[in-house]
UniProtKB/TrEMBL annotation:
Residues 261-473 form the Histidine kinase domain. It is an enzyme of class 2 (transferase). This is histidine kinase. It is found in: Membrane. Residues 199-253 form the HAMP domain.
Length: 473
């Protein structure tokens, strides 16, 4: 079943890619195809109508020629024979193969003469309003004609003629069917050629989209779209896009430099301020409770600001490529146990470690320890004190995995895709009380990816969250 499922998935992807009603390729193909179908159909319909009219005109002229002779011959024979015999004699003289003739009295109630192949069905067809067109009588095709006959200016009756064109009509129908088949094949070939041409014409745009999607913030200054074989309009678009990338790269570099410089410049005086505040709290015995509380608050805020500046410096170094990773084989079981013990020393939260086998990975021990502390800090902040936190180490398909699992408030589904963004906080009010700035997870993601791993999250609102760190073994 797997090959069948894989084939179905391939067809589904092709259908989504090429039959997307909102895509430019689909719209252009559909519109041009409809115009082609309309044009070829119009040509085919006009050609068929013209061929039919030519057939009618040719045989109508022949019948009209015979009809014009008919009154003269009747008048000629009426001088020598009775009327009925003169009519029959005239019909016999003017009759040609495939032409049926009959004559009715003026009131139309009596057939005075007819050729041998005239049938009752044919005569009943002659009562309908006759127009220059093809009539089907039984299994035959006829062109019908009706004209008045007068002898010595005295109305004698009406002559009816039916020219059999069955063979010609069958040939015409076969020709029309062939023309239809050719038009259908030409339409399909045109649609296929149009689709392939449009697809080829849009390939530079697809290549441009693919290249643009692969560009990251770190590559802005070194990324340029190269479309040598693209149309002029697409080349101009690519040049404009390259200029925009250059401007974004310059702005991004300036932003990184600014953040790094301002963080470095502010951290030193704030560290001095924090040191003086802590020293003042330790050495001053003549402070009242209010003064001590104010100094303690100022010291705590200074420490929080120093931590924020350190986080910004870490991100700036990572963005600039200045972060160095000392990768070495590390037994993850020992590292996880060390972080769990460290958490237990500075708090009363229960951290459970679960590991069935020893798992080793190539990581930077200090950086991974920093990531685990960040994740544990989040788990502690967003779960109740009575709920334990789990650290799980396992190996699956030659991958080393560390899971940090809590049973806290969880993360809403709409926020899962953004929790690794910088300065993004799910709950602003709760984050303010816990002291978060929305940088911990961003730093963790940057460090894990810098070591060649990846970090993922699963969460259910009200049940808890699980962060998974995956490294190749």
């Amino acid at each position: 079943m797997k090959p069948i499922a894989k084939l179905k998935e391939t067809f589904r992807q092709l259908r989504q890619r090429h039959l997307d009603p909102d895509s430019l390729q689909f719209r252009l193909t559909l519109e041009i195809s409809l115009l082609s179908i309309l044009g070829l159909s119009s040509v085919a319909a006009w050609t068929s109508w013209k061929m039919q009219q030519l057939l009618i005109t040719t045989h109508t002229q022949k019948v009209e020629y015979i009809a014009n002779r008919f009154p003269r011959d009747v008048e000629l024979y009426s001088d020598m024979l009775p009327v009925a015999e003169g009519l029959q004699k005239t019909i016999d003289n003017v009759s040609v193969p495939g032409l049926s003739i009959w004559f009715k009295s003026t009131d139309g109630t009596m057939t005075l003469a007819k050729s041998s192949e005239v049938t009752d069905e044919l005569m009943s067809s002659g009562e309908m309003p006759l127009k220059p067109q093809v009539y089907r009588v039984g299994d035959r095709y006829k062109i019908l004609y009706r004209g008045d006959v007068a002898v010595k200016n005295k109305p004698l009756g009406k002559v009816y003629m039916a020219q059999d064109i069955t063979a010609e009509q069958h040939q015409l129908i076969a020709a029309i069917q062939g023309l239809t088949a050719v038009c259908i094949l030409a339409t399909l070939a045109t649609i296929l050629a149009i689709a392939m041409r449009i697809r080829r014409s849009l390939q530079p745009l697809q290549e441009m989209s693919r290249m643009a999607g692969a560009i990251s913030a770190a590559d802005l200054n070194n990324s340029q779209l190269q479309l040598n074989n693209a149309p002029t309009e697409v080349k101009e678009l690519a040049q404009t896009f390259n200029m925009m990338l250059s401007r974004l790269g310059d702005a991004w570099e300036q932003q990184r430099q600014f953040i790094g410089n301002i963080s470095h410049e502010l951290r030193t005086p704030l560290t001095v301020v924090s040191g003086y505040l802590q020293s003042l709290l330790r050495r001053s015995n003549n402070l009242n409770d209010y003064q001590r509380e104010a100094l303690a608050t100022a010291g705590a805020e200074a420490d929080r600001t120093i931590k924020l500046l350190q986080d910004l410096l870490d991100l700036a170094r990572a963005d600039s490529g200045y972060t160095r990773y000392h990768l070495a084989p590390v037994l993850l079981n020992d590292l996880v146990s060390e972080v769990a013990d460290l958490t237990g020393e500075f708090g009363d939260r229960t951290v459970r470690v679960a590991a069935k086998v020893n798992v080793e990975a190539m990581v930077d021990r200090d950086r991974l320890k920093q990531v685990l502390i960040n994740l544990l800090d989040n788990a502690i902040k967003y779960s109740e004190a009575a709920q334990p936190i789990e650290l799980i180490v396992e190996q699956i398909n030659k991958q080393a995995i560390i899971r940090v699992r809590d049973r806290g408030i969880g993360i809403p589904l709409q926020d899962l895709g953004r929790i690794f963004d910088r300065f993004y906080r799910v709950d602003e009010d709760r984050a303010r009380t816990t002291g978060g700035y929305g940088l911990g997870l961003a730093i963790s993601k940057t460090l894990v990816e810098g070591m060649g791993g990846k970090i993922m999250v699963r969460s259910t609102l009200g049940e808890g969250s699980e962060f998974s760190i995956v490294f190749p073994k």
